[in-house]
Amino acid sequence: MRGVILNAPGDVRVEDRDDPVIIEPTDAIIRLAATCICGSDLWPYRGVEKLDGPAPMGHEYVGIVEEVGSQVTTIRPGQFVVGSFWASDNTCEICRAGYQSGCVHRVLMGTIGTQSQLARIPLADGTLVATPGMPDADLVPSLLAASDVLGTGWFAAMAAAAGPGKTVAVVGDGAVGLCAVLAARQLGAERVIAMSRHAPRQELARSFGATDIVTERGDDGVAVIKEMTNGLGAHSVVEAVGTQESMMQAIRSTRPGGHVGYVGVTHDVALPGDELFMSLVHLHGGPAPVRQYLPEFIDLICERRIDPGKVFDLTLPLDQAAEGYRAMDERRAIKVLLQP
What global pTM score does this model have? Predict the structure, then answer.
């Protein structure tokens, strides 16, 4: 099969890889209908995360089941399935509490690499959810978004306690931040403030339900949020970047007693204990338990009540993955869908 390999920072190639095979009786093999490039893939691409030799890339996926292991009971060959970027058994105590990304048997799909034509999915019964029949082609991008960015944005909004009567601010205008805007509106937030400097992303944020746009960032952005909220700060703030500046901007934009939901993959973030102590904010976040939400997402998408697939503003063949990485790195694209 063909698959994306990151050989060194900035060096993405599509190469021949061995076809996956069933290793554990709980595995499944799927043929990818679509995959994509994630903002978190840019960290190793830019050299911020160090590679230990060439690495397969990708952790988002939808496709058709080709083969299942002898212990798989809930899915079967021929079904169209959506899975989380964390494989999980969905039965352990942590999974049952709704935190499948912390499953005691979890497997990070990025270690397998799903920017490929085929993929082995561990713990298939707990990871994959079948759609009701074969979805229409135009729904595939939204179902793919459910594999990570929609679920991550949704978890961020939930962790930030977004809901009716709340003002929600979203720090970060990538695909996850934009999906957090969508989620906040779906959860009933009264006001959703998207923090963005980029016109196409601002437009998409508004289409997802943003009521306000703030272009300032850092402490200037905090000052604007405070001004918009009678000096108090937002009830709920989503942090969807993962830098020191974005995390402090999120915390400082939150009113005492408010909630910060952080889902940006953190790099060199260190929180000042005295400021955190005096802020009186709730902090909750981490890798999103996407599997918790997949049945609901599939219903919402197949009923055409939400369209998170709009975050994909560039579609390329899998063999042009290197251009997709360049486009996202240079902010010429919000999120790139790859067609195997």
Answer: 0.96
